[in-house]
Amino acid sequence: MIFGKSKSLISLIPGLSVMDRYMITELIPPFLFGIGIFSSIGVTVGKVFYILREAVDGGLPMSLVVQILLLSLPQFIAYALPTSILLATLLTYSRLSSDSEIIALRSSGVSTYRLVLPALIMSLLVTGITFIFNEQVVPAANYQGTNLLNQALNKEQPSFRENNILYPEYGEVTRPNGQKIRSLKRLFYADQFDGERMIGLTVLDWSQQGLNQIVTSESAEWNPSESTWKFFNGTIYLISPDASYRDIVRFENQKVQLPRTPLDVAIRGRDYGEMNIAQVKENIEIERLSNNEGRLRKLMIRLQQKFALPFACLTFGLVGSALGNNPRRTNKATGFGICVVVVFTYYILIAVGDALGLSNYLPPLVAAWLPNLFGLSIGGWLLFKMAQ
Question: What is the model's pLDDT at position 312?
Fold first, then answer.
């Protein structure tokens, strides 16, 4: 029934020849098989044993265990989509080749490059599906599953950082000689954050020439309507150019024009797998202001991976169709083994790209797209060799 619906949907796609529709129809069954088997293996290896152990230790009801496993399923389906494209193209083109259908098509004047076009069309379609799935479904499901498990195990943590909030603000500072440079502008420190107020604050201000004031306060809170901080029971020490105290001002309530970023730093954000593109970009802006180069580079790599990982479908589609054009027949067991090797190599390259990107040897864009660039190069080379 599913296959019949798939065939009817394919017939609605304009511009496809009879050969294209036939080959895409042949790709669908092993693709669906791949999604089922790879996502099942992923959930079993990645989640089931951990959840069951936590369920036994924490006495979780089975209904809650099933709910948490279902919430973890979208992430593994997203991982399975590119791998399933690899398996589908490898098995389908291998069968067509071993049954001499590839030879018949070539003898009719169809080139090897034209033969892989249906696989690339389907790979591009799955690339779009994977991107939307990773953006709209996976982060929300991961976040909800994590919160549900933590609450069930009584591990719920405050959604904020409680102690030692440090935020360095960088900006354009004018030196005594009039030269403008990018340097430390303010240093914001708070002993504690209770979810509403910062407690035990010290702010060092270099926004003018040299250190010009020090602000200490018992507590402070962010006023969203006025976009200012309200400091309570504190002291402002005004500093002269010769580093002596020019004046000391004590206050009970004082509005201070500072950015909201210290509050964003204090609020604990989601994990990388629980953020969509917009949320990753927000975190990048926060880290850019605080000048945390290490975390900034990591976030920029993760942002590029949000775009690069779905394109693994296209990479695997090219590699799989090129390998499948080999005349030797490939059964499901052999195809599964080849998939494991190719996917393992791909994720090794992800780790290598991560390491080189975080070490500043590669820019984030190249680090994130390194596996795809390597895979497309190998796939193109294999296809060229098969076409000769």
Answer: 93
